[in-house]
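Task: sequence in, structure out. Protein: Chaperone protein DnaJ.
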Amino acid sequence: MSAREWIGKDFYRELGVSSDASQDEIKKAYRKLARENHPDANPGNAEAEQKFKAVSEAYGVLSDAAKRKEYDEARQLFGSGGAGGFGFPGAGGGGSFDMGDLFGQTAGAGQAGGFGGLGDILGGLFGRRGGAPGAAGARGQRGADVETDVRIDFTEAVKGATLPLRLSSPATCGTCGGNGAKPGTSPRTCPTCNGSGLVSRSQGAFAFSEPCRDCRGRGKIIDNPCPECGGEGISTRTRTLTVRVPAGVDDNQRIRLAGQGEPGRGGAAAGDLYVRVHVTPHRVFGRSGNDLTITVPVSFAEVTLGGTITVPTLDGKVSLKVPSGTNSGRVLRVRGKGIHKRDGTQGDLLVTLQVAVPSRLDAAEKEALESFAEASKKHDPRPEITEMLKER
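Result:
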């Protein structure tokens, strides 16, 4: 996409957010729109597919802090980015000029009052760092980043897993290989700009470079566009990737797959794919950092007299000694039975003992408990409170 086309778009409007929206708001808006317009959810719906591409492109810019900063600066410079002409005070009175005039370097950039510096200011936004007209970087644009979601169960999150990931997203066209031309044909060098993608023209006392109108700044002309991608070199494809989820991944954590996002244009690098992991809670186990947690019901006799209980782990079971006189809520630690990460760190299993109170007692149990209560009256369970009550 040329500089003119990028600035002419309103990425904030595409995502339905304000220009001062936070990264979380931008991300939330993108994920909602991407789900609603995903090709898999709208088979054969060309309008939804175009919307999906548009919100992906917008998110690729606004989710990147550096790109967003440059984009915002460009919008501010051009009065929020219309694609038509702009009035320029002092440039021949009340005349106007096309915004494309500002994206190249002037032949007289070294002269006082030249505007070559403006090309450098915005060069980073379009993959160009003030290079000479005709440089390959002037046409290159890094591919947008793509985000998708996967859901795994608790055990997979703890131990790690390898998952197949099927997604539909913009990718290099498989028919033309990305050059945009119909198979059997090739793009030709633009005769207007001689393949540079830029043309120079004069306006008053100044000379300006701007993207070539004939080839749209690409340097190539496609006479026979590819039937699949229409000459863009990019089409929406369904592909299957293998994602390795590391052991100990957290819920809502993102995994980055470098170079698996949207393909770049003009030979630029592809964007990245971010896989957001959602972990289904376990019915018994919980997690605290690298430690696994479990609450185990125990009887009053077990915590009072002490004993040995059997506790489950994700790998099997362990025997755990309960000291006599243990209070309800005490946490016992089983070393090495937590999460083992590839960096060598490992957690433990934290076992919380919770005294289970029976809801019903038969006659023998009730009689035994009443005898125990009578015999244990000398053991006041609340001595501080009892002392306070006596004072009052």
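DSSP finds ten helices and 17 strands in the chain.
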